[in-house]
Amino acid sequence: MARKDTSTLYHEALASGRALALYRLPGTRSVHYITGGVVRKLKNGQEAFAFAPFDPGIKPYYIVAGSAKTIQPLPVVKQKAATKASFIRLVKNITIDIRSGAYGKIVAARALLVAKASGFEAPAFFDKLCSAYPAAFVSLTMIPGVGMWIGASPEILAAQKGDQLTTYSLAGTKAVSDASPWGDKEKEEQAIVTDFIRRKLDAISDKAIKVRGPVTSEAGSLKHLLTTFTAKSMQADVWQQVVKTLHPTPAVSGIPQAKSVKYIQQKEGFDRRFYAGYLGPVNRNGRTDLFVNLRCMEVTPKQLIFYAGCGITGDSDPQQEWLESERKIAVLKGLL
After folding, report:
1. pTM of this prediction?
2. Cis omega before residue 214 (within 30°)?
3. Taking each helix axis from N to C terminus, what angle separates 84-99 and 318-333, rounded to the nearest 10 degrees?
4. How far apart are CA 322 and CA 110, in angstroms?
5. pLDDT tens digits for range 222-281
């Protein structure tokens, strides 16, 4: 990072009441930042950092350099942590609804609330994530009146550089130490997401779409099944159409998409807010890189709130899904 370190940038933004995004792209060493105001709609080609909630009906927030209009603060939400028993019960109920034929897949998520230590420093934790997870998109997003989130996401939602567009189908999870073959449940979960993305991209693009995978992709202590899609487009902002069509993908919501989002909002028992939303730089040096907000935590004045979700199919084992959510939460929590 040139001139100012992450701590200086963070404390300057905090003192001045400006929004700030610190981020490090996968496979790179340079930390980038943007600080300033917030808008809810971008001008053509405007550089910004996007921060969108899980709910596709709510407009994204865009951090832009300089001043911007005052935004309406979000109401304070008192999150509810899931107990092991309540999460297992949720997963059991989901498997019943899937077996009835009403759904193909639903993602069950939970929150874990931890008291924030007096010595916790958000920029120092961001730096630690950059060192621990070089292949992830590491970010710290702070918007006054909206919140602060830190994460290390393994999943691209939409990336565009010039005329090339890339997106991921990432589903199915195991510990890196698990050498057993991928099971039918993980393969089915991945296939559901892949088929959904393929259909959506076919409807958007008039060019051939290249598909690679599924392959095993490691992300810290976890590994996933990954299929990569690439396509050509002459539209400079085709990423916006792709995001509008895909978000939230079945990797974080379910099938059918809209019906699963409603199910999640009614049954999960907490507000996902920006968990499983998307974030990243747009229109920076001719490219846009948006990632799903996974392996993340919300930083509040008194608590750190960790979020994790598991793709549920009719063959899911509730006990194993609980263990998977524990492993996902440990990606960040283990570095405290």
Report:
1. 0.94
2. yes
3. 130
4. 9
5. 888 999 999 887 677 889 999 999 999 999 999 999 999 999 999 999 999 999 999 999
Distance CA 13, CA 318 (A): 43
Identify the CATH number of the domain in which residue 10 sits: 3.60.120.10
Calculated CA dihedral for residues 155, 172, 174, 179, nearest 10 degrees: -110
Q: What angle do CA 124, 307, 128 make, to 5 degrees?
A: 20
Structure tokens at 68: 């911007």
Residue at 183 is within a domain: yes
Closest by CA to 250, choosing from 315, 189, 333, is: 189
* Alpha-carbon dihedral angle through residues 308, 146, 15, 129, given to the nearest 10 degrees: 20
- Cis preceding-peptide flag for 248 (omega within 30 of 0): yes
Angle at 190 between CA 23 and CA 177, to 5 degrees: 70
* Span 47-69, pLDDT tens digits: 999 999 999 999 999 999 987 77
Residue-wise pLDDT tens digits, 314-336: 999 999 999 999 999 999 999 99
CA angle 290, 294, 28 (to 5 degrees): 55
- DSSP run (H or E) holding 200: helix 184-204
Instruction: Please state the rounded mean pLDDT for residues 102-118.
Output: 96
- Asked whether residue 49 is domain-assigned, the answer is yes
Which residues span the domain enclosing 37? 6-333
Question: What burial class does residue 234 get, using C-beta atoms within 10 Å of its C-beta: 0-12 exposed, 13-18 middle, 19+ buried?
Answer: exposed
Q: Where are the beta strands (DSSP E) in 176-256?
A: 210-219, 222-232, 254-255
Give a yes or no: residue 312 inside a domain.
yes
CA dihedral 145, 78, 290, 67 (to 10 degrees): 0
User: Which runs of E-coded beta strand occur in the chain?
Assistant: 19-24, 32-39, 48-52, 61-65, 105-115, 137-143, 147-153, 156-161, 164-175, 210-219, 222-232, 254-255, 278-282, 287-292, 296-299, 303-312
The torsion region of residue 251 among left (phi > 0), alpha (psi -120 to 50) and beta comes to: alpha
